[in-house]
Amino acid sequence: AGVLMKRLLTLKGYTVDQTLEQEQQKQRAITAIRRGFSEGHLQAVIAQSFSLSDYQSAFSTLSLNKHIGKIIITP
After folding, report:
1. How many CB atoms lie within 10 A of CB 70?
2. What confidence score (pLDDT) does residue 20 get?
């Protein structure tokens, strides 16, 4: 918060529902996300990968909600 106040910045959050309800805002978000990935500013974070045969472990890991990133199940 101190950095925001020193630089007179504003931080505003949106929920996914709010963004998807407004077409223009949704398109801006999609464009920004695509640009972020294509320019390398955004990167998907993968917490752990599981084989399809080990899907129960994947769902157990997911249910603990202690991971940071995506849980991947590979067929």
Report:
1. 12
2. 85
- Written as one letter, the residue type at 19 is T
And the tokens for 44? 């998907």
DSSP annotation of 47:
E
Q: How many Cβ atoms are within 10 Å of 60's Cβ, its own excluded? A: 11
Structurally, the chain folds into a number of domains equal to: 2
Instruction: Please list, in sequence order, all residues whose beta carbon lies within 8 angstroms of the beta carbon of residue 31, skipping any fewer than 6 positions away.
Output: none
In this structure, the answer to whether residues 51 and 30 fall within a common structural domain is no
Percent of the chain with pLDDT over 70: 100
How many CB atoms neighbour CB 45 within 10 A? 9
